[in-house]
Amino acid sequence: MNPIIAWLLKDVLLPLTPVICGTAVRYINYGELEFELTELSFSMAVLFMIQIKSIGKKAATSTDHSLIEGLMNSAIVAIIICLLVFTVSVGQKIETDNSMRNLIDIFVVELKKGTTVIKLKQAIENYKIFKNSGQSDRLKIFMYALTIVSIPLAGVFKFYYKLED
Q: What is the pLDDT of residue 123?
């Protein structure tokens, strides 16, 4: 098999499987083509964990210890960044879910009081503003940029530095 295709399947497609499957399920069920930040950040961490495994195999045969140390440190930093983004995005998701539960509780109370539909619409708009906060958007853009950089970087690790499988 062509080494580039084998690399794409093993080192790129395999870690991105949760992102691809989750996006497909959301698209089929809701018609939304959006990547889940938690899936993407964790998948990128897995991608770099695979790179660490390859770097470790290269370390056994390499005499260039500073190169191996630099590659290893780069991969570890990338894993830490990806896991931090994962942790923050999980926290935001929990906060959004709690907000949704609170919104439902408010709806139930307000409906029992006989509140008008206009007030309920305002509560929904407030929820949408909270859910789509700028911080979440900035985190997504950062993770998308990190992903765009990570996949070619993994290719550089594999082919330029001749890492083993």
A: 64
